[in-house]
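agent> fetching stored inputs for the adenosine monophosphate docking request
agent> found them:
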Amino acid sequence: MKAVCVYCGSSPGRLETYADAARALGQALVARKLGLVYGGASIGLMGLVADTVLQLGGRAVGVIPQALARKEVVHRHLTELHVTQSMHERKTMMADLSDGFIAMPGGIGTFEEIFEIWTWAQLGIHAKPCGLLNVAGYYDALTTFLDHAAAEQFLKPPHRAMLMVEQQPQALLDRFVSYQPPDIRKWLVPDEA
Ligand code: AMP
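agent> prediction call returned; pasting tokens
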């Protein structure tokens, strides 16, 4: 792995614990010589992860759509900043530049990004690891719901297991290194079933 994409809040969240975790993730990436790929903003947890990586001498690559880049939130001191025409182009580029995907606590933007990349993994569009960094139990209710979706047979257990969940960045990155995508298709073709 060379670079990891981090999806996370453009807000800092209520607890200082979230900021601490953003810094810890930045430190873990640099310690493993992994570059950061992220949404290119200077605000919230996004800015904290990028600042930590940069302060420690690591590589932070931002990918931001033009509409957001015009606003003042764009981070001006990144190793590289890619400005795309659209959100769709941006997400494709973030995916192409990254060897794994982590969602820290965040809002709708974060949910949408991790769910899309996990969907692409489920469909075999890529074979890269995806995970949630479950800081202060932020994703407990979501993981309970995902287990419910699997129990109700809308999600196959191997596809559910593709979205790894850990509380510590090092534990999540350890699992990324040994990740093997499941050998299972989303759909069974009737004559192959
Ligand atoms: P949210 O979780 O709703 O705060 O949205 C954060 C996620 O959506 C990040 O991972 C970004 O990729 C994207 N995003 C949302 N707001 C911005 C912004 N102002 N600048 C860049 N990316 C953003």
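agent> quick read of the result: The mean pLDDT is 94.
agent> awaiting further instructions
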